[in-house]
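name: query_chain
kind: protein
chains: 1
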Amino acid sequence: MLKHKKQRDTLVVCLEGELDHHCAQTVRQELDQLIEDERVRNLVIDMQGLTFMDSSGIGVLIGRYRTISRRDGRMAVRNMSPHVERIFQLSGLQRIIEKVR
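structure:
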């Protein structure tokens, strides 16, 4: 479901498939393990391979945003499909999570 790589203090995570109530807990746990490392201050979620996201996925993003924010870090998303971007916009996440290229 997710691939990752660290670049200094930034963790880039690529999500694939669906981020819904069926897999949100697993993704949440995997992300939390990856950002346990206090040296990770910035998190970029690449959504190119993500085909669907529901409110559970929004919860996953908000929780990781809070963790990264407590470290004075930044969180960003990139490569959203039109469907995922619509959910992102409707939820208001664009006000707190930056969209990058």
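note: The mean pLDDT is 94.
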